[in-house]
Amino acid sequence: xxxxxxxxxxxxxxxxxxxxxxxxxxxxxxxxxxxxxxxxxxxxxxxxxxxxxxxxxxxxxxxxxxxxxxxxxxxxxxxxxxxxxxxxxxxxxxxxxxxxxxxxxxxxxxxxxxxxxxxxxxxxxxxxxxxxxxxxxxxxxxxxxxxxxxxxxxxxxxxxxxxxxxxxxxxxxxxxxxxxxxxxxxxxxxxxxxxxxxxxxxxxxxxxxxxxxxxxxxxxxxxxxxxxxxxxxxxxxxxxxxxxxxxxxxxxxxxxxxxxxxxxxxxxxxxxxxxxxxxxxxxxxxxxxxxxxxxxxxxxxxxxxxxxxxxxxxxxxxxxxxxxxxxxxxxxxxxxxxxxxxxxxxxxxxxxxxxxxxxxxxxxxxxxxxxxxxxxxxxxxxxxxxxxxxxxxxxxxxxxxxxxxxxxxxxxxxxxxxxxxxxxxxxxxxxxxxxxxxxxxxxxxx
Length: 446
Ligand code: PLP
Description:
It contains 14 helices and 16 strands. It has 446 residues and is an alpha/beta fold. A hairpin with a 4-residue loop joins strand 2 and strand 3.
């Protein structure tokens, strides 16, 4: 494959954009592919190379790059009426009604413009509603580029995870290991009355999709109910993907107090939302006194794209299709690597899938370590898993970054930059795409 144009564009970008990109994960080495257009389940780069795309915009593109006619028409009609007004529109009410009809925890929503804005607003809402300040987050979770959750370490040693995030934020955020009921119970014993919310992804989509162990979310639900803290599910990634229109909470059978959305809810355009019972969500201004506002919030084009995407998914067999292809990929990759790869685990559920390289001998039970590694690469987890006792170097990111992802790209398979980022199947992917993908994995391991 020739990548000359992408290389030249990257050189140009490096002098006007920090790191050459506008979101850090896009800066794959030695240079990223600059994408010119999408086509179904594929992307075509500036040099004309075609790839089967499993990045899918990092999740929003449930229907693929070529939107169905109904979605396209709704977007075009909204655009031809003018971009936005700074006044209420019917389409935002319709999307809110649709979401409230399908998602168990949602009675009322406030729309925002991104996943980060959704989690910022949810945390403020929880603090304002409960009158408490601390939040508990999971090691290995990700909730966007916001101060309250850019915190690493553990309950005894929480620290800001980025220069520019004041240490005072870490004083109000308590990271705990995902799936460890004892650890969070200890935290509630000490701080129970100060905790405004437990904020967690239903499954750790930002650690390749580590699933909850049985009963974990039920335990969180009880803990929150007993202490008066709110349970917030961050469904920015899983929302309208895992568990279909009911989202991951429907699949898991646990209803949080608040839910954050983004990605699919905007149908490929910037949108996010915080949802929950009216009693809590009405604490937002102007109904209540927890300040929240946004010039672009409820943007008509994004609302139209989101609503028509979800309607299309409801009326067609989108979830059956993407989940079947996701399962074929997970089992197909597992068959290929089982006697070839020195250490691996396959994560993901429904239409999310990821092959994660681990040190020799690491097994699925080391997933907690993989999550720990993501949060604190310098922690004990790196060499020795305190939870499972296994000796694992949790996730061999180097093997992914330098060897596997670039090799797959040359075979026409476009995978996420970091091995702990989930990958996504869209409705536009075909059986042939999946067959070709598995063939490429097979060739690599041979
Ligand atoms: N929460 C989760 C679970 C996410 O996966 C992401 C982004 O990937 C975010 C929040 C942040 O969303 P955004 O990038 O739209 O700000």
